[in-house]
Design a protein that fits this description.
The protein has 147 residues and is α+β, with helices and mostly antiparallel strands. It has a single domain, classed as Hotdog Thioesterase (Thiol Ester Dehydrase, Chain A). 17% of the residues lie in helices and 40% in strands. It contains three helices and nine strands, in the order E-H-E-E-E-E-E-E-E-E-H-H. The strands form two sheets. The chain has a five-stranded antiparallel β-sheet, covered by helices on one side. Strands 2-3-8-9 form a four-stranded antiparallel β-sheet, with no helix packed on it. It is globular, with a radius of gyration of 16 Å. It starts with a strand and ends with a helix.
């Protein structure tokens, strides 16, 4: 059962601002990167267009608290932890940790909540249960890993 997923990346120059640190908006892109990789690791995707009706995982909440800056060429580990699992929604905590250059330290903590939604022929979205083959692979992270 999956409750955690990790990915790493190196900060690109284009992701930094005039102060030479990662612009805050890029943390939301990083959260999306690790979330997409999490779903792919389970054999799924945040866009399930092969289903009838097609399903997607729109965000209903996104936030990020910043503790330390990231800079060009820093290597950051993004650790996704499932914090809540409901029939039609799921929440994650994403912990950002600079792993190079040292010293290793937590730089930010993000939160995302997504809803499994079907798209009607008229374009409207309706919350629906997650597909069982994906749902059954996921569990909530143990409390000690969320501290």
């Amino acid at each position: 059962m999956a409750h955690e997923f990790k990915a790493t990346r190196r900060v690109e120059f284009s992701e930094t601002d005039m102060a030479g640190i990662v612009h805050f908006s890029n943390f939301f892109r990083y959260m999306e990167t690790v979330e997409h990789a999490f779903w792919r690791s389970l054999g799924g995707s945040v866009v399930m267009s092969q289903r009838e009706p097609p399903l997607g995982l729109p965000r209903v909440h996104a936030s990020c608290d910043f503790k330390r800056p990231l800079r060009f060429e820093d290597v950051v580990e993004m650790r996704l932890l499932v914090t809540e699992k409901r029939t039609r929604s799921m929440s994650y905590q994403i912990r950002f940790r600079r792993i190079a250059p040292g010293p290793e330290e937590e730089v930010a903590v993000g939160k995302l909540t997504v809803v499994c939604a079907s798209k009607g022929s008229d374009g409207t979205l309706q919350a629906v249960p997650f597909p069982a083959e994906l749902w059954d692979q996921i569990e909530v992270a143990p409390p000690e890993s969320l501290a």
